[in-house]
Structures are given as structure tokens and as C-alpha cells.
């Protein structure tokens, strides 16, 4: 059994961070609070879009997946994933949906880009099911949110950029079986 080592990440008030289950948020505050007789240092992250505030013990932030915004090379590799050929497995939708959700909630930009690429449909192709559309939109929103902060642009501009990459890379949006 190996012991999991964590490197302590420092967060600053006002900076953007990624929480895998929610996406991009902004650090509102870092403070100490007495809880059940123990003093904990908490990081407060606001997610404006969801009107949600998250408080995470700073000591466990890394274990919970809280991380800084990806650097440009990481985002560029995610964009390369978008340029690839869409892949769908011949398994039941419920299992694929679960795999897609796990990739989205991993917080990994390249894994999220795989979901966006695989579920992207051009306007003239067959309709997606409601659940496919929901998962696609969630993945696109998460990827665009992090891309926007990384490149200091609006979420709308980031979404347009991602969609243009998808349109250029997959003009017919052929799918292959993996």
C-alpha cells in the first residue's frame, strides 16, 4: 500500500480555481473557523453562475480536487483532443453516460474535451437525446469556462472558439467505434 502524498497548493483571494464537480469558481476568502473544537482554515469559493458558495478545508482542498486554472499548454492539448475524430463505443447509453459524467467530474480539461468532441453534433445531423444534450452542454460549459479564464476572454468567446474548432475538425462529424 502506498501512501498518497499531496503537495500543498496555495490559493489567494480573488483568483479563479477549478472544483471538478462544479467547474470554475472564484476564491472569495480564506479564513480560520472553530468547528467542533478544532480550528480549520477554510477556503471559500463562489460559483456565480450557480449562485453557490463552497467552503472547503484548506488542508483537504487538493484531495477534493480543488486546483488552480490550467496553464496554456494544458488547455492547448485539450484543444488538440477536440480536433480529433469523434469516437463512440458500442455500449449501452447509460454506461456511456456514466463514463462521460466521470470524465466531466474529473476536472481534467482533456477528458472533458473528449466528451465535447464525442457528443458534438452538427445542426444538420440527427437530433440528440435530452440526456446526451445535457451532458454535452455541461461538458462544453466546463471546458469553455476554464478556457475563458486561462485566456482572459468571456465565456461566450470561449464557447465560440471551441465550437469553431469542432466545426473545422469534423466537417461531417464521422464517428468510429472504439
Name some characteristics of this structure.
178 residues; Thrombin, subunit H; Methane Monooxygenase Hydroxylase, Chain G, domain 1; 2 domains; 23% strand; elongated; disordered C terminus
CATH class of the largest domain: Mainly Alpha
What is the CATH architecture assignment of the largest domain?
Up-down Bundle
Radius of gyration: 18 Å
Question: What is the molecular shape?
Answer: elongated
Name the strands of the widest sheet in spatial order.
4-3-2-1-5
Overall number of strands: 7
CATH fold descriptor of the largest domain: Methane Monooxygenase Hydroxylase, Chain G, domain 1
Query: Which regions are unreliable across 5 or more consecutive residues at pLDDT < 50?
Result: 1-6, 173-178
Q: What is the string of SSEs from the N terminus onward?
A: EEEEEHEHHHHE
Structural class by sheet pairing and helices: alpha+beta
Number of helices: 5
